[in-house]
Amino acid sequence: MSTPAGEKLIAAASTLFYRHGIRAVGVDLIAETAGTTKKTLYDRFGSKDALVALYLERRTGIWREFLHEHLHGRPVEDLFDVLALWLREQDRGCAFVNAYAEIGGTGHPAEPVIRAEKEWMRAFLVDRAREQGHPESTGVALHLLYEGATVLATAGGDPDAPARAKASALAVLYPPADEQGERGQQHQHDHSLAER
Amino acid sequence: MSTPAGEKLIAAASTLFYRHGIRAVGVDLIAETAGTTKKTLYDRFGSKDALVALYLERRTGIWREFLHEHLHGRPVEDLFDVLALWLREQDRGCAFVNAYAEIGGTGHPAEPVIRAEKEWMRAFLVDRAREQGHPESTGVALHLLYEGATVLATAGGDPDAPARAKASALAVLYPPADEQGERGQQHQHDHSLAER
DNA sequence: AAGTAACCATACCGGTCGGTATACTCGCAG
DNA sequence: CTGCGAGTATACCGACCGGTATGGTTACTT
Q1: How confident is the model at residue B177 (pLDDT cuts 50, 70, 90)?
Q2: Distances in Å between the alpha carbon of B158 and those of A89, A125, A147, B25, B164?
Q3: Could you tell me the distance in Å between the CA of residue A171 and the C1' of nucleotide D16?
Q4: How far apart are CA B7 and CA B17, in angstroms?
Q5: Which residue of B83, B92, B131, B140 is the best one to mutate when testing the A interface, meaning the one whose CB has the most A CBs within 10 A?
Q6: Which class in CATH covers the domain with range B1-46?
Q7: In A90-150, beta strands by DSSP E
Q8: Is A183 an 8 Å CB contact of chain B?
């Protein structure tokens, strides 16, 4: 936690950074939106870069909470239903991918935060898959499908990407029992997440 | 094609936009890097936004050429070897995803270029998969894995992501013949792309 | 010979960038 | 009652932003 004015600044910065991007948002606008001053911003955080790193750190917590709350007690493939739900409000996609697009490779203090988030998600999915009796490679595949679905739902403009990713995930988790080739998403298992 | 000075401007803009991002690069720097002037830039392209759109349009062509050249005559799963090769030089990841992170949802003239690229890639993979006897859903799965691998190789900092994606792709393309669960990437088929 | 497309050079515009400086007010703990 | 952390308000800094204006120089066409 931070001071009251500090929290208002983080909240304003988070909204603005996510919606418009990092470079597109100036510190003047952040301070004004938060109803405070640039002086306070620099007293609390020292630099815009530090505020950016904090924005992403806060965001990891929010996503993990959302994920745990909605995936609790459900099979791992329902991840994609949770993602679809998340993207309905977070329509600018993955904040970490977006941030990396702007600051990647510059030595920015937020870079390790981005890598850590991706690593955490990989480990989470490997663990969850393992609990259901699947090898590490299956968790990795789920992670790849998850990132792909996020990108295609936003930059790709395909709102059904998470649903398609779920279908692909089911094919990986429960491979068809016959020998080869010709068929597709024939088994539907209906593990689908109830609309809440 | 454009005039000589126009081409120099596009080349300079492409390098700079890809390396540092769109907002991070000013028109003054582009003109100076190209060894020409801002006047010429505006005479040729009219606005920075138009130059951004052109940058992405050019980039689609370069990637498609690279893809066709390296994937020619090889099975579709070798896509991931081609991607690894591409990312060895294009280490800032997908230019379209990065651009969308900066301009997405703003009505920028480059937005349709981004969506078109993702759609083209989807159609390409669906076609290629179909040629090998696989249903549309398999091509879609390959597309998701491809986007996921690109993100995880760059923002995720995992240079082996394309290789992992290939293993996942093989599991989708050639599902294991037994009933369920417990095993992973047991068949390796060795369709791997010869190092060139 | 006149016109024109392409180009270079330079200066300018209002606005915003990240960051700093100065000065003042409040509430609270020693 | 004094000192200090937290806050507000405002002004300032040099640098850069996207975009425009003016003017002059080639080279090729009609």
Answers
A1: low
A2: 29, 16, 13, 27, 10
A3: 53
A4: 15
A5: B140
A6: mainly alpha
A7: none
A8: yes
Task: Provide, as residue numbers in chain B, all residues whose Cβ is less than 8 Å from the Cβ of A24.
Answer: 23, 102
Q: Quote the pLDDT of residue A176.
A: 74
Strand D lies under 7 A from the Cβ of residue B48: yes
Say whether the CB atom of A26 is under 7 angstroms from strand C.
Answer: yes
Helix and strand tally (H, E) in chain B? 9, 0
- Is-contact B173 B138, C-beta < 8 A? yes
pLDDT value of residue B175: 84
* Smallest Cα distance from A174 to chain B, Å: 6
List chain A residues with CB under 8 Å of B139.
none
pLDDT score, position A186 = 38
Interface test with B, best of A52, A91, A97, A126 (most B CBs within 10 A): A97
> Which residue spans of chain B are classified as CATH 1.10.10.60?
1-46
CATH of domain B53-173: 1.10.357.10
Residue A30: per-residue pLDDT: 98
pLDDT in tens, A53-105: 999 999 999 999 999 999 999 999 999 999 999 999 999 999 999 999 999 99
- CB of A159 less than 8 A from some CB of B: no
Lookup: tokens for A94: 């993955």
Which residues in chain A (25-64) have CB-CB distances under 8 A to chain B? none
Residue A4 tokens, joined: 């009251």
DSSP secondary structure letters along A150-166: HHHHHTT--TTHHHHHH
CA–CA distance, A94 with A30 (Å, rounded to integer): 21
Please tell me which residue, A28 or A3, carries the higher pLDDT value. Answer: A28
- Between CA B54 and CA B61 the distance in angstroms is 11
CB of A42 under 7 A from strand C? yes
Query: Tell me, what's the pLDDT at B15?
Result: 98
The whole-chain average pLDDT of chain B stands at 91
Q: Residue A151: which of B102, B141, B151 has the nearest Cβ?
A: B151
